[in-house]
Write a structure and sequence with these properties.
The structure holds two protein chains of two kinds. Chain A is an alpha+beta fold. Helix content of chain A is 32%, strand content 19%. Chain B is built from twelve helices and no strands. The longest helix of chain B has 27 residues, at 46-72. The chains are: A alpha+beta, B mainly alpha.
Chain lengths: 105, 277
């Protein structure tokens, strides 16, 4: 049986998928995951999940948004002087990067 | 609690006792690690392979701890490992025996018998008043918890059906007498106790070991070929190892593990960067 392993490097981080282990049951899976995915890096926590419990949504299903003009949703579509607060500037920058990577205009 | 003493501050008699204790601790760790590595690449699954290899590395690390303590007493790595006469090794026969070929029950049960013993040994040296014995215990124990859990989880699963349980039983019949050699007192036994090098006598530790091992194995439907009241000396194998009398398997293993050193014509060993820190 296959188990997916998610690793959190430090408290507050997201758990990120880092690989899988084969094990007959949950207890053995955690034992093997510890060795394979926890031992060599600082690890705050591991999630070990039966692979079959992971539901996949593929690219066709995730492409539902962004097909019509929704420029009003983008912070970058507005002329705001963001210099008054660093977090607003950061957020705008982040938004611009996302738009670029999505290929939006 | 009284402040801890340093190994270097022991008098001659205490020093000899400490050496004798340390050689047994170190050699058992070193040799069982060497044996475990034989399962690399051939364990039942990739995962079990990695787990056992990691355990082998841990045990080598523990051997290093005790060898380093012997280093404080003037021994070099060359004297301790690479050029030591095989007859001067003080490990028990439990750790030197080859594994029954292809039988996963063997390393698992052997690991269990050894890890319970190691745990109790750590308790005993943690109760000493010598810094080099007490200080490493916590670090070693944190790794030992995994080893015990690993062995117990596997044993529970191997004993889940009749065929598996029979294999474990036959490993127990073969290995328990050898595990008893871990508790055979050497000539320094009473000096070790009177010098305060361990908080618990060898005899008391053996009784605890047998209680723990027997109650766990019996809970899995196995029988332990020995009762707590039995005289353990009657169940011992012909060679006990810790007195320097080993089985024929040991010189062969020693030859193998020192082969590269000899082949390369080495006369000393260099420490890797970061080692011993």
């Amino acid at each position: 049986m296959r188990w997916e392993v998610f690793r959190q490097a430090k408290r507050g981080d997201y758990h990120k998928h880092c690989g899988d282990v084969h094990a007959p049951d949950r207890e053995m899976a955690t034992l093997f995951a510890q060795i394979q995915h926890g031992r060599r890096m600082t690890t705050e926590s591991l999630w070990v999940v039966p692979s079959e419990e992971v539901t996949e949504i593929d690219a066709d299903d995730t492409a539902f948004g962004g097909r019509t003009d929704k420029a009003y949703r983008w912070a970058t579509a507005y002329n705001v002087d963001a210099s008054f607060a660093q977090e607003v500037a950061d957020s705008e920058e982040e938004q611009a990067e996302v738009e670029q990577s999505r290929g939006d205009d | 609690m009284a402040p801890l003493r340093a190994l270097a501050d022991l008098d001659d008699e205490e020093r000899a006792a400490a050496e004798s204790l340390l050689f047994r601790l170190a050699d058992d760790e070193f040799v069982i690690a060497e044996r475990y590595t034989e399962w690399q690449v051939v364990a039942p699954t990739l995962e079990s392979d990695l787990a056992l290899s990691n355990i082998a590395q841990d045990e080598l690390g523990h051997a290093r701890v005790w060898f380093d303590a012997l280093g404080e007493l003037g021994y070099s790595e060359r004297d301790l490992v690479w050029e030591r006469d095989p007859g001067a090794f003080r490990h028990s026969t439990l750790v030197e025996l080859p594994f029954a070929e292809g039988d996963w029950a063997d390393p698992i049960l052997r690991g269990y018998l050894y890890d319970v013993a190691e745990d109790l040994r750590l308790d005993a040296v943690a109760g000493s008043d010598v810094r080099e014995l007490v200080d490493p215990v916590e670090k070693i124990r944190s790794e030992e918890e995994y080893h015990l859990e690993h062995a117990q989880n596997w044993l529970e699963r191997l004993c889940d059906d009749d065929a598996g349980r029979e294999r474990v039983q036959s490993a127990a019949d073969r290995l328990v007498p050898h595990a008893l050699t871990l508790w055979v007192p050497g000539p320094a036994a009473s000096a070790i106790d009177s010098s305060g090098l361990r908080g618990e006598s060898l005899d008391a530790t053996r009784r605890q070991w047998l209680d723990t091992v027997a109650s766990f194995l019996e809970s899995l439907g196995l029988t332990v070929p020995l009762d707590p009241g039995d005289d353990p000396t009657e169940s011992l194998p012909d060679s006990v190892g810790s007195d320097g009398n080993h089985t024929d398997h040991w010189p062969r293993l020693h030859d193998e593990l020192t082969e590269t050193y000899r082949e390369l014509g080495r006369s000393d060993v260099r420490r890797l960067r970061g080692e011993g820190t």
